[in-house]
Structures are given as C-alpha cells and as structure tokens.
Amino acid sequence: MSKIVGLTGGIATGKTQVSNYLKTFGIPIIDADIVTKMVEAKGHEGLVAIISEFGEDFLDVNGELDRKKLAQTVFSSDSELKRLVRVINPFIGSEIYRQINELKDQKMVVLDAPTLFENGYNSIVDETVVVYTDPVKQLSRLINRNQLSITDAMARINSQWSLETKRDLADVIIYNSKEFDLTKLQIDDWLRNEEF
C-alpha cells in the first residue's frame, strides 16, 4: 500500500509549484482541483447535484457550470460555500478514493488539496505537508494571478482556514516566500528523510 501524503496550503501559496516539482520525481499526484472540475463537468452527476441545489441560473449557454457566477456567490457567503461543499464533496471524495485505490502499488502518492483540513481529507493521509507563504505575499500573488480586487482576494483567502492554523497542524512545513530554488532545497531534504 502507498504512503499517502496530503499536500496543502492556502490559495496562492505556491502549492502547485511544489506539486509540479514533486512530479519530476515520478511521484503520482491526485489533484483535488482537477477532480473537482471533473465532477462538476457537463454530463457528470456532480453538476446535476449543483444545479438541483442552486438552480439553472448557474449554467452557461453551453450547459456547462458558470464557475465565475458560482464563485461570486459562494465566496461572498460562508453559508453558500458550506452549501456547495455539502453538495459536491461526496462526488469529489468518491473520485479521490478511486484514484488512491488505483495507485495503491506506488511507493508514495500525493493528494494535492487546498482544503485538505477543511474537508477532512487529512484523515485519509499518512502525513500532511503545508506550503506556507508570508500572508502579504499570498495576497499580492492572488491579486496578480487572478486579477482580483483586494476585497475579492481577501474573501477567497478567508474562505479557507488560516495559514497559521494549517502550519500548526502540519507534519512538514515548506516555506515558499522567497525564490523557488530555496523551496526546492526544502523539498529535497524532506524527500531524503522519506527515503524516496
């Protein structure tokens, strides 16, 4: 059976950079964001469940999920975000478990999930790795990357647990506030300790 590592962090902390670097070692990655898009796609039961809960106004002209409209709704209200999570999480969880089972012969599998702790996926992993970034840098990255206002960026950051809380719960912390070469050195050290 594989060792399952949960990789998490806040939005715009550089978790994807870390995940992509781990791929260069041949480590299989289960990306919760990709899984989410998969189960919310046209023709999937997950999309049917979302539309049943939120209404057909959240479909675009092609019958696909209007992600921008849904994001505006759920990131402006805790109760709406909880409502979405309650509806879609069973589909996401089912696909994650399926992929873990498919990769059970690998030495290590990384579950890359921004809301690993929030959605309880930390209970299915053997070790948690948190990518931590200075909060000011996190905000700046998110504004630049997603072309968001400060208010919208803060709403997205605040929809997740604080970086400090995640850092306190982590087995391993990767600091990613400076050049990525320094981050790579930390990842290399961690993998050496894992004897990977």
Automatic annotation (TrEMBL):
E.C. number(s) listed in UniProt: 2.7.1.24
GO-annotated molecular function: ATP binding; dephospho-CoA kinase activity
InterPro entries: Depp_CoAkinase, P-loop_NTPase
Record keyword ATP-binding present: yes
UniProt: ATP binding residues: 12-17
A GO cellular component annotation in the UniProt record: cytoplasm
Location relative to the cell: Cytoplasm
Domain of life of the organism encoding this protein: Bacteria
Pathway: Cofactor biosynthesis; coenzyme A biosynthesis; CoA from (R)-pantothenate: step 5/5
Keywords noted in UniProt: ATP-binding, Coenzyme A biosynthesis, Cytoplasm, Kinase, Nucleotide-binding, Transferase
GO biological process: coenzyme A biosynthetic process
Catalysis performed (reactions): 3'-dephospho-CoA + ATP = ADP + CoA + H(+)
Task performed by this protein: Catalyzes the phosphorylation of the 3'-hydroxyl group of dephosphocoenzyme A to form coenzyme A.
Family as reported in the entry's similarity comment: Belongs to the CoaE family.
Official protein name in the record: Dephospho-CoA kinase
Organism: Lentilactobacillus curieae
Gene label: coaE
